[in-house]
Amino acid sequence: MIHEYLIQLLTIISIYAIAVTSLNLTMGFTGLINLGHMVFFGIGAYASALLTLNGVPWYFAMLIAGILASVLGIAIAAITARLKGDYLAMVTLGLVFIAIAVSRNWISLTRGALGLPGVPDIIRNNFYYMVLCMSIAGICIFIFYKLINSQTGRVFQAIRDDETAAAVLGKNTYFYKIISMAVSTFFAAIAGSLLVHHINFIDPTIFDLEFLVVIVTILVAGGLASIKGSVISVFALLALSEAMRFVLVSPALIGPVREMMFEVILILILLFKPKGIFGKVDV
Amino acid sequence: MLSLNNICKSFGGVKAVDRCSFKTEENEITSLIGPNGAGKTTIFNIISGLTNPDSGTIRLLNKDITGMPAYKIAQSGISRTFQLTKVFRNVTVKDNLLIAKNTSEAEMKKMLESVYLHKPLDAIASELSYGQQRLLEIARALLKPHALLMLDEPTAGVNPRVRQELKLILKNLKKQGKTILLIEHDMDFVMDISDKVIVMNEGKVLREGKPKDIVKDKKVLEAYLGK
Ligand SMILES: Nc1ncnc2c1ncn2[C@@H]1O[C@H](COP(=O)(O)OP(=O)(O)OP(=O)(O)O)[C@@H](O)[C@H]1O
Ligand SMILES: [Mg+2]
B80: domain CATH number? Predict the structure, then answer.
């Protein structure tokens, strides 16, 4: 019983680890205020669900989901990259509301608020599915480490710190911002895909802003521009959130209290430790 | 090397640069001087592609670079620093340099030594003093492959010791025969180091010539001291 419970937790932790580290790539390392991260996650989940429900093999569906999200990510970055200031933040936040509206109203595709049940398992055995999720998370984190420590990753960080200075050193900052978004959104969709095959169901609530708050809280608590921080933070905060289950007597309280927990942590971190636990960059 | 032809730029009603033309020669130090607001920094921004001129053309190494994006102009051979220093704050000294050029630790250390910056490569840039950040910015600009180096008031806003070091650095660069376009307020220093001086006032080139001719010029004195 407890064993099965741990398997569930580690599966979710792996999926969140992909979601948070990929957000760190854009927000932490490149300085792109991307508030639509969970839209790419949700698109990955929907694409994967729809494709596998129509008989496409899961690995193929996952790949297409990643590419779809990535194409949208590239488009958003291309539109906003030349604009100054926080346009990306506004556009990506707008994207959240568009995603909610589309997923609720494009009934013929998404069945609207009813959602899509019966999304097939990739692997029946939960233990092996956990191993799959952990492996993909490991690959993803490895790729991020390699990327961050490459010349490309250096340019990402230069753009975050001073885009003008990066440009006069001969870097096409426009191109690099697009690359950052392309990679980040691809992996967000992979995470979404893994989640939907885990819970075998998806509905428009995947785009809810609460989800974004959770992901951003984990990111900021671990620290911007620290992959290690993100991973540790995912473990710590999800474990803490799970612990609520044992502390709270009334099951009806669990949902709201957890939500509040993330909001409180976010505010506390911003007030007292804006660099997060392992971060190198101020929020 | 670099030639500006009839460059104009207005911000709203302000004519920041007004029909500006001049040339820099290879292996020479050309200095831009002029009172505050004369348009010197705006000229730098136009040359490096950060600001588009309203009219006029810029040629670098016989290539028209007018209107090209900043990164392409940088790739065409211009390296520059800023009046208010711009380092990459949250990364190490080493990463600041590696962005300019993917090179060996030995070359980076040599470069830091040549600009009198005695800091380890793994120090975070934001932990450096302002003067040290300026030295780092110059090291970075020097490391970036370039034909022309542009320095916007390198000795401004730093303590006297760093100021002396910066003057030494510039003298060393002159010895190496570097081609430099310099904005500088310290007159004695400018007259000492420059091969050519261009005096700007209210966006216009007022005078252009050898230092010894400029110091004697009445118009230049007027621009600086008022009539
Ligand atoms: N982005 C801008 N928007 C509006 N006005 C500007 C802008 N940049 C420069 N100016 C104006 O253009 C004029 C020239 O400014 P510039 O910074 O080029 O002068 P400068 O010669 O570098 O002066 P300083 O010695 O003080 O650095 C000034 O009147 C300035 O206020
Ligand atoms: Mg200036």
Answer: 3.40.50.300
**A209–B contact, CB cutoff 8 A:** no
Task: Tell how many helices (H) and how many strands (E) occur in chain B.
Answer: 9, 10
pTM of the model: 0.92
Residue to substitute from A27, A29, A159, A161, interface B, most B β-carbons within 10 A: A161
Nearest chain A residue to B141 by CA: give it.
Answer: A169
Of B48, B49, B99, the CB nearest to A155: B99
Number of inter-chain CB pairs under 8 A, A vs B: 71
Is residue B127 included in any domain, yes or no? Answer: no
A38 touching chain B per CB within 8 A = no
Span A229-252, pLDDT tens digits? 999 999 988 888 888 777 766 777
Closest in A157, A167, A172 to B90, CB measured: A157
Tokens representing A92 are: 């990506």
- The answer to whether residue B34 sits within a structural domain is yes
Write out chain B residues lying below 8 Å of A29, CB-based: none
Give the ipTM: 0.93
Residue B125 falls within a domain, yes or no?
no
Q: Which ligand is nearest to the CA of B33?
A: 1
Longest CA span, chain A: 60
Segment B11-17 long-range contacts (CB within 8 Å, at least 24 positions apart): B15/B202, B15/B203, B16/B42, B16/B203, B17/B42, B17/B43, B17/B46, B17/B53, B17/B203
Does residue B130 have its Cβ closer than 6 Å to ligand 1?
no
Q: Is residue B198 part of a domain?
A: yes
Q: Is B14 in the pocket of ligand 1 (CB under 6 A)?
A: yes
CB contact under 8 Å between A165 and B80, yes or no, is no
Domain count, chain B: 1
Q: Measured in whole angstroms, how far is the alpha carbon of residue A19 from the centre of its chain?
A: 3
The parent domain of residue B67 ranges over 2-86+144-225
Is some CB atom of chain A closer than 8 A to the CB atom of B123?
no
Say if residue B61's pLDDT is above 80. Answer: yes
CA separation for the pair A140, A135 (Å, rounded): 9
Q: DSSP secondary structure string, B90-111? A: TSBHHHHHHHH----HHHHHHH
A141-170 pLDDT per residue, tens: 999 999 999 999 999 999 999 999 999 999
Q: From the CB of residue B14, how many other CB atoms can be counted at a distance below 10 Å?
A: 13
A250 at B interface, C-beta within 8 A? no
**What is the position in ligand 1's atom list of the atom closest to the CA of B200?**
21
Residue B117: strand, helix, or coil = coil
**H runs (alpha helix) in chain A:** 2-24, 37-53, 58-80, 87-105, 107-110, 126-148, 151-161, 163-168, 173-199, 209-222, 227-247, 251-272
